[in-house]
């Protein structure tokens, strides 16, 4: 087993992934996820406004989409890696410990999409247009989230001797016991591996650039930009997944995430080809009259302008009657 001084050319892992402030644990994984969500909301809202929508819409819908997405991401991870939690030696309650890592992007997108659909219906705006606006922000958030895997020393690839190999340290707690998640590096390098987290991070950034360029040049809409994001991400995830060496569920001898990537890629490409061309009319991105937050009638009261119309009409009727009575006299 080599020491860190023997492998100075390699990429080092962070010495730890969690810091304690009294009883409060600050986890790099959680902080990266939160940072990614904030970036996606801020950038997504700017893109939504630029396409003709109202400012603040993305944050309103994120209130639905983010919780749904986190639950979906965790469910996908647990279902596709169930033996870790429910197999021999597994601890079922650990399935609830999201802070230990483990969020499946496809579950997050699927269930997060359900949350976004609910939010869009409440606002009276088209989901496909909303998805196109936030697509670059979502994959940028994924890139930021991958830094959390670096701090957790997880999701890495097979051993390698390439110059950009990643050092995986042995981490121990204050008593000297091995603690991969909450421990601190003791300087001993256990292995040097392919930094697949970095490969995916770089790939995601390339997809961000692709989406922005395509969107500006061709002005596509109706969910096609979101489909391009999904297809692009899946293409990269497929080959990156084949480089990983950690435990995973297999289907027909293929890692489940590669299997899922291939299926979702085909579906995304089909949608991109078959969906309506062009981009939505900006007027269609405004909240519809009758949506719960925009219409007074939906809240059980008549809109002010309707009351003015009724009042004006009443005044005209009274005026007409007075005029007729005057003629008779």
Can you describe this structure?
The protein is mainly alpha-helical. It has two domains: 4-295, no CATH class; 298-328. The chain has helices at residues 28-50, 57-80, 82-86, 105-123, 127-152, 196-218, 224-241, 256-274, 304-328; strands spanning 18-21, 24-27, 166-172, 184-193, 250-251, 254-255. The strands form three sheets. The protein has a two-stranded antiparallel ribbon. Strand 1 and strand 2 (24-27) form a beta hairpin. The N and C termini lie far apart (115 Å). The model is unreliable at 1-5, 289-317 and 323-329 (pLDDT under 50).
How would you concisely characterize the structure shown here?
It contains nine helices and six strands. The chain is mainly α.
Q: DSSP helix count?
A: 9
Q: What is the radius of gyration?
A: 27 Å
Strand elements, count:
6
Strand order of the largest sheet: 1-2
How would a textbook summarize the main sheet?
2 strands, antiparallel
**Helicity, in percent?**
55-70%
Mean pLDDT across every amino acid position: 85
**Element string (H = helix, E = strand):** EEHHHHHEEHHEEHH
Number of domains: 2
How much β-strand is present in the residues? 5-15%
The structure class reads mainly alpha
Which residues form runs of ≥5 with pLDDT under 50? 1-5, 289-317, 323-329
The termini sit apart by: 115 Å
Categorize the overall geometry.
globular
